[in-house]
């Protein structure tokens, strides 16, 4: 089990630690609901240093990225980031990721921790054609997500740049908490605003400590992975391994908006055909109409009790105080307002198909 540079810090804070994607990670400190509310209303800090970082450089860097990702990275200027995915050759998804354009011919790909080796092998396979320079920085870099509506105000004293001026999915390479040249990115997995800070492992403890000093008057708290999951689910953000995987296409998953057919990419022809002809199943969002908590892999059934799908992600929403979830169902059941049923133990609980996000500020 790998540790992040902050593992001892989490243990000293009394975090409940669990194995996650090969890392010893904090799942909670004071409890998921309290931590969730901290991020929705104040500011919280996540250690997500388990995430992977690949640096792709050289004159063919963009060509390689265009080939392996579904979104159009040619639209990125220096200082901008983009959500994308790596389609596989058979209609599914290798991983979802964020692409940052660091310099004219240099890009940072941020991938999921559990997929680092798989993603590296997949991109390397296609790089045989392009010969871009690839560096796996995952072991050397840490990542803090400072999230919440008070993040800008709480962290402004730590940097010389105007944090409020960084637009969503834009970033600056600047000083932060006394460290030079960190990436300050207006991105996150919570839907409550804030930043993600990329720095070297040896720098992260100083940044963590100074962030908590600066945020003391704003109710800052450390946040674990359990609240990260409830926060992202309230926004309807896909989780790799649950809502998207090697067998689900970006079109089925509602990710057409990051699938651009203005270029040739891995399996683009088949995916474009899917988009034109339509798909047989779709990822839907639903809210339970009665008390209950939908869980991953619970069956979704029709009014006669026939199985029509499974829950891919589900929880009791701390913000809405009701059961919410995502799952794949045949297209005929996917319309907003439709009633489906979630099999919870021996009872089929009615649920309504809703539009995302579940929660809005």
Summary?
The protein is of the alpha+beta class and 361 residues long. The chain has helices at residues 7-12, 32-41, 61-68, 116-130, 151-155, 201-214, 225-235, 268-277, and strands at residues 16-20, 23-28, 44-47, 52-57, 81-87, 93-103, 106-111, 133-136, 141-147, 171-176, 179-185, 194-200, 221-222, 281-288, 299-301, 307-317, 322-330, 339-344, 347-354.
- For this structure, the quaternary state is single chain
**What is the succession of H and E elements?**
HEEHEEHEEEHEEHEEEHEHHEEEEEE
CATH architecture of the largest domain: 2-Layer Sandwich
CATH class of the largest domain: Alpha Beta
Determine the fraction of residues in helical runs and give it as a percent range: 10-25%
The chain-level structural class is: alpha+beta
- The count of domains is 3
Continuous helix count: 8
Task: Please outline the helices and strands.
Blueprint: H1 7-12, E1 16-20, E2 23-28, H2 32-41, E3 44-47, E4 52-57, H3 61-68, E5 81-87, E6 93-103, E7 106-111, H4 116-130, E8 133-136, E9 141-147, H5 151-155, E10 171-176, E11 179-185, E12 194-200, H6 201-214, E13 221-222, H7 225-235, H8 268-277, E14 281-288, E15 299-301, E16 307-317, E17 322-330, E18 339-344, E19 347-354
Parallel strand pairs: 3-13
Antiparallel strand pairs: 1-2, 3-9, 4-7, 4-8, 5-6, 6-7, 9-12, 10-11, 11-12, 14-17, 14-19, 15-16, 15-18, 16-17, 18-19
Molecular structure report:
By secondary structure, this protein is an alpha+beta fold. The protein has 3 domains: 7-49 and 140-234, Probable tRNA modification gtpase trme, domain 1 (Gyrase A, domain 2, 2-Layer Sandwich); 52-136, Aminomethyltransferase beta-barrel domains (Alpha-Beta Plaits), CATH 3.30.70.1400; 280-356, Aminomethyltransferase beta-barrel domains (Elongation Factor Tu (Ef-tu), domain 3, Beta Barrel). It has 8 helices and 19 strands. A 6-stranded mixed sheet has the order 10-11-12-9-3-13. A hairpin with a 4-residue loop joins β16 and β17. The chain starts with 6 loop residues before the first helix and ends in a 7-residue tail after the last strand.
């Amino acid at each position: 089990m790998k540790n992040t540079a902050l593992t001892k810090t989490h243990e000293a804070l009394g975090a409940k630690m669990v194995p996650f994607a090969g890392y010893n990670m904090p799942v909670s400190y004071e409890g998921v609901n309290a931590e969730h509310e901290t991020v929705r209303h104040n500011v919280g800090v996540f250690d997500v240093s388990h995430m992977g970082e690949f640096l792709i450089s050289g004159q063919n860097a963009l060509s390689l990225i265009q080939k392996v990702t579904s979104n159009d990275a040619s639209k990125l200027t220096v200082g901008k980031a983009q959500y994308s995915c790596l389609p596989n050759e058979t209609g599914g998804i290798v991983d979802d990721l964020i692409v940052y354009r660091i310099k004219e011919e240099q890009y940072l790909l941020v991938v999921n921790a559990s997929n680092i080796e798989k993603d590296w092998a997949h991109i390397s396979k296609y790089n045989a054609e392009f010969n871009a320079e690839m560096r796996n920085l995952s072991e050397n870099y840490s990542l803090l997500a400072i999230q919440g509506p008070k993040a800008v105000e709480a962290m402004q004293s730590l940097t010389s740049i105007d944090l409020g001026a960084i637009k969503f999915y834009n970033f600056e390479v600047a000083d932060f908490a006394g460290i030079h040249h960190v990436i300050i990115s207006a991105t996150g997995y919570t839907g409550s605003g804030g930043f993600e800070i990329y720095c070297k492992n040896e720098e992260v403890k100083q940044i963590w400590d100074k962030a908590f000093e600066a945020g003391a008057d704003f109710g800052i708290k450390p946040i674990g992975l359990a609240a990260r999951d409830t926060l992202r689910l309230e926004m309807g953000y896909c989780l790799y391994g649950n809502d998207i995987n090697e067998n689900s296409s970006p079109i089925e998953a509602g990710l057409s908006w990051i699938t651009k057919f203005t270029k040739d990419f891995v399996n683009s022809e088949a995916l474009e055909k899917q988009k034109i002809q339509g798909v047989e199943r779709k990822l839907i969002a639903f809210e339970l109409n009665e008390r209950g908590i939908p869980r991953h892999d619970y069956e979704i059934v029709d009014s006669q009790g026939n199985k029509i799908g499974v829950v891919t992600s589900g929880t009791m929403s701390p913000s809405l105080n009701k059961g919410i979830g995502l799952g794949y169902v045949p297209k005929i059941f996917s319309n907003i307002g439709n009633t489906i049923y979630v099999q919870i133990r021996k009872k089929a609980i009615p649920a309504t198909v809703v539009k995302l996000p579940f929660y809005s500020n």
